[in-house]
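Q: What would this chain look like folded?
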Amino acid sequence: MQAGGIKLSLGIYTAVFLIFLYAPMVVLAILSFQTGPEGGPQFPIIEWSTYWYKHLFGLTPPSRIAPLPINEALVRSLVLSVMTMIASTVLGVTSAQAFRRRFHGSGVVFYLIVLGMMVPGVLVGLGMALVANALGIDRHWWSTAFVLHVVYTYPFAFLVMLAILNRFDQSVEEASWSLGVSPARTFRKVTFPLIFPGVLSAMLFAFTLSYDEFSRTLFASGRDLTLPLAIYGTFSVEVHPNVFAFGVLTTIFSFALLGVYAILMVLSIRRAKRVAIQGGGVMPVPSAIVTGAGSGIGRAIAIRLSQDGYAILVNDLHLDRAQAVADEIAAAGGKAVAVAGDVSSETDTAKVYEVAVSAFGHPQLLVNCAGIVHQALFENLEVADFDRMFAIHVRGTFLMTKLALPSMLAAGDGVIVNVASQLGQIGGIELVHYAGAKAAIIGMTKSLAREVSNRGVRVNAVAPGPINTPLVRELSQEWRVRKAAELPLGRFGEPEEVAATVSFLASPAASLFVGQTLGPNSGDVML
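A: My prediction, written as C-alpha cells:
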C-alpha cells in the first residue's frame, strides 16, 4: 500500500510537471492559428487561420502590423550557435581528455572551468561590456558575445565529456598502444568512435544553450541583435500572434534537431559497439619486419608469418625481389609492404623501420634474416670480405634490433628471432668469417635475452643446417653432394621448414623459450 501511494504521488507529480512544462507551449500554438490581422493574442479564437504563418514569410497583404524583424537575427543566432558548438565541443573534449590523468593544480582548473556556468549571465554580460568600453573594443555578436557564449557553454561540454571518459574502458587503448599505434592515431581510430555519442551530446548542449542565450548577449552583442534579443524587442511595442507562430516553427525546428541528434546517436552507438566488439577493429593487425626476405629462408618466413596473421615489412637489398614477395603475400590476402635497404647501413635501416611504422605501426616481431655466403680458406680471406660478412650479419642484426626494441619494451611485449646457422655452433672449413658472424649472432641472442626477457620481450635464434636456398646453391656442387650424404635425414631442409620454426618461436606456444637457439638441421648437429 505504501509503495502504491509513492507511485501514485510520483505519477501525479510527473503529470503536473508535464502540464506546467508543455501547457504554455500548447496555448501559444493554439493562439498562433488566430485569424488576422484583426485577431489578437487572446481567447476565444475568432476563426482558425494560418494567416500569421503566412505573415512571417511576407505572403499577406500589407497591414498595420509590421513583419517580425527576425531574418538577419535568425542567421546571426544560427551562425553564432554553430561557432559556439564547435569551439566548446573541441575545448570540452580536449580538456576532459587531459583530466583523465591527475596533474598539479587540476582541482583549481576544474573549478575555473565550471565557474562559467555558475556566474549570473547578466553580471558576465555587463562585465564584458564594461571591459570592452574601457579598452575601446567594439562589441559584436561574433566577437564579444561569442566569447561569452563559449565561456557559458564550455563547462557543460566539459562535464558531459568528463562523465563519458570517466566510464571509458582504457583497455582498448592499451591494446592499441601494445600494437605500437601512436597515441594520436589511437585517439582518432579507437577512442573517438567510442566516445562520439558523448561528443554529440556536448554538441547539442552547446548549440541549444547558445541559440537561446539572452542575458549575456544583451550587453555583449552590440548593435546587431541575435534572435532572442530581436524577439524580446517586439514585446516592447505590441504582441501579436505572429510571435506565437514563429515560436511554433522554432519548436518544430528544435524537435527536428532532436530527431537528427537521435539518429546520429543511434548510428554512433552502433559504430562504437562494433569497435568495442572488434577490440578496436580499426587498429592494424600485428606487424613483423623480416630482413633478407627477398628469397630463400627470408621469403619463406615472410609468407608464413603473413599466413599467421602478421602484416609484413618485406626488406631486401634488391627492391624487385622484396616487391615480388610483397605482391605474393598481397595476392594471398595478406598485408605487406616492400622496402629496399642494406641492413649494414644505419641510414637504410632507419628508413626501413620508418616505412614499417608508417605502414603498420611499431612492429611486434622482428626477424633478422639478412645474410650473405662467401667461401675462402683463412689464408686467402680478404679483410674486405671479413668486414662485409660481419657488417651484414652482426651489425645488421644490431642496427635493426636497436630500432625495434624500444617500442617493444614500452609495450611490454615483443619477439625477436635472429637467423644464425649451425656453423656458428660447430664451425666450417673455408667459412671462418661466416661461422664467426653466425656465432656472434648466437652470443648476441643469449645476452640480449638475459637483459630484456623480464620486461616482456623474448629473444631467440634459429640455427639452420643445410637448407635448399639460393645462397646454399652458390656453394660448390661437390660440397653439397657430400653434405647431403652425411645428414642423418638424408636431405637438405626446405626454407618452409625453417619458417615453421620461426613461426613457433613467434607464437605464445614458445612463451618459455628465452635465449634459445633451435636447430632445424636434418640432424646434422645434435646439441
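Residues 410 and 468 are 38 Å apart (CA to CA).
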